[in-house]
Design brief:
Length: 228
């Protein structure tokens, strides 16, 4: 074979070897892909909860020794709106209404039911959210409550009217969200509201009885969380 033919064969073999090496390198070298970037969450969050409201149920009528009050429990729906200032600090506004019966207790147990009243108790809390537990998102909070009383009815024939005064209160809170994904979660929440409004009863004879109701409810809630 001529030298020219040997050169052609050698060049062809060298080209095949180089191409094979490049292909092997391409197969063994991982292809870099930029990590997917998640859009930041909105600072807004809402929850829809069912609440079990359990008043402390106490109080007294001025001038009647041993008098006390009993206030019924209530189960109601509730909506709350949360705004996150940072991933840990948030403010929550709780909205809902609750109906309650007011009954005589202690030395005035014989009066039975004194009246019925509805409460509108918007509560604003400042919260700290713990973020180092994966899908488990516990939080604590404290804030203020303003309770407005409406649809007040004296249901006992001995009284012609019932007036419970609106009042400010202090609130403590603890709870957690269990997040199913970035947006949806399950919530459990407990609040204690310190609320002691004054009230005024008018008898059918025109006399007035006044006193203080120690409502101070525990509020147990469970529901669904959605983070925008």
């Amino acid at each position: 074979m001529s030298k020219l033919g040997l050169g052609i064969i050698f060049a062809a073999g060298l080209s095949a070897l180089v191409a094979g090496s490049a292909t092997a390198a391409d197969l063994s070298t991982p292809v870099y892909k930029a990590p997917a970037v998640e859009e930041p969450l909105s600072p807004w969050q809402i929850r829809v909860r069912a609440l079990y409201v359990v008043p402390e149920a106490g109080g007294s009528v001025t001038g009647i020794p041993g008098s006390d009050l009993s206030i019924s429990n209530s189960v109601v729906p509730e909506l709350d709106i949360t705004y996150y200032f940072t991933k840990n600090i948030a403010a929550e506004l709780i909205l809902g209404v609750t109906p309650h019966d007011i009954n005589g207790a202690g030395t005035i147990t014989g009066l039975g039911q004194v009246g019925k009243v509805w409460l509108l108790p918007p509560t604003l809390t400042l919260q700290y959210h713990f973020t180092d537990f994966g899908p488990f998102k516990p939080y604590i909070g404290a804030g203020v409550n303003y309770t407005a009383f409406f649809s007040q009815d004296a249901t006992n024939p001995a009284f012609s009217s019932l007036k419970v005064n609106d009042a400010w209160g202090f609130a403590l809170q603890a709870g957690f969200d269990w997040m199913i994904d970035r947006h949806w979660g399950f919530n459990v929440d407990v609040k204690k509201i310190f609320l002691q409004p004054d009230f005024l009863l008018q008898t059918v004879g025109g006399a007035y009885l006044q006193g203080s109701a120690q409502i101070n409810p525990w509020i147990f809630g469970t529901g669904v969380t959605y983070r925008f």
